[in-house]
Amino acid sequence: MIEGIIVEICCGSLTDVINASSVQEVDRIELNCALELGGLTPSLQTFLSARKATDKKIICMVRPRGAGFMYNDYEKETMYNDAKIFLQNNADGIVFGSLNKDHTIDQDFTERMVSLIHSYGKEAVFHKAFDNTTDPVTAIQTLIACKVDRILTSGQQPSTENGIALIHDLQKNYGNQIEILPGGGVNQKNAKKILTGTGCTQIHMTAKSEYEDDGTYYAVDAHKIKGVLQSLSLNNRILTAADRSMLKNDTYEKRMYIHEEDDHDQW
What we know:
By secondary structure, the chain is an alpha/beta fold. The protein folds into two domains: 231 residues, Copper homeostasis (CutC) domain (TIM Barrel); 31 residues, no CATH class. Helices cover 37% and strands 17% of the residues. It has ten helices and ten strands. The strands form two sheets. Strands 7-6-5-4-3-2-1-8 form an eight-stranded parallel beta sheet. A two-stranded antiparallel sheet has the order 9-10.
């Protein structure tokens, strides 16, 4: 954690987990495979190796295929059983998502998944299937009713930076009932803008760089993570409304911190 912000790194391999875990301030790993497809269920062996490699929280993706999020009964049963295996082997949570054909939340399956995850005392996270729903307000209300712990969202936009307005409204109106985790296109230039604009206290990113090995591939880059963290460090502290009110009467503190409105061009 840095400056009260929970940092989650999206990992697609054991190498990604090791690279992300090398940065002390990283709090959580979201473990996937096939990130080029939006993230699918990782292999059990990848998870078991990751569990040995890090003591950071690992949230496992259960998603059986790419494309949309409308699954048949066989796919749902696979997701459920994959989640159970991960939980039995000490996963800290499960990230999943399922929609109806009308792009509303698949409430029955969501409730079933949450019940399983909570029976192990772990975190139930609904992924960016949320961004494919037709009505985000109805969707978040449904997820709250299902007792989901957290939503990963880019504010129903391709990039979180473009979805700040919606995420802000969700955080303002529902943040005391469910965690809102902004993610998608987060980088050193926009991380502070996203956190300040949304009012959220956690962030999700891939922080990947391009590598070559008889072809191009992408992997988590610890230097990119540190770059984002540096943008959120003490000298660039994100100020809440309460902070700014306090600083109006404190000349010394005004010299120490940058107001969010003062460094807008740096985002």
